[in-house]
Amino acid sequence: MKIKTILIINQQISVIFEQSWFQEDIETLSQLILVKLPKHIIKEVTFGADRENIRFQWQHAEFMMNFDYYSQSCWINAQDENSLTNIEPLYNFLTKS
pLDDT tens-digit profile of 40-67? Predict the structure, then answer.
């Protein structure tokens, strides 16, 4: 599994993978993203029927990484107004390598 592209649209980060994936792949896919963020802390993982959400802290801000299997989508959004100011630095970290 590889990341194809990472975009920022309307203060939300979208991650597109090179190939289709299954819900069982979400742990691997999330690690492809989180490995790019030094000193992140996973706060909570929520499992759903076709969706998985991972709440994490990075640089004193809280974000939610969302995976939806049926739409094959992955996106990251800020959890509050304070964290919203860190969405651009988060995007820059994710795309620099």
Answer: 999 999 998 889 999 999 999 999 999 9
Mean pLDDT of 84-88: 94
Query: Could you tell me if 30 and 64 are in contact, meaning their C-beta atoms sit under 8 angstroms apart?
Result: no
Cβ-based neighbour number of residue 70 at 10 Å: 9
Domains and CATH numbers, the chain: 3-95 (3.30.160)
Q: What's the angle, vertex CA 41, arms to CA 36 and CA 20, rounded to 5?
A: 50
Kindly report the average pLDDT of the chain as a whole number.
94
User: Is the Cα torsion angle 84, 6, 92, 60 positive or negative in sign?
Assistant: positive
DSSP string, the chain: --EEEEEEETTEEEEEESS---GGGHHHHHHHHHTTSTT-EEEEEEE-SSEEEEEEEETTEEEEEEEETTTTEEEEEESSHHHHTTHHHHHHHHH--
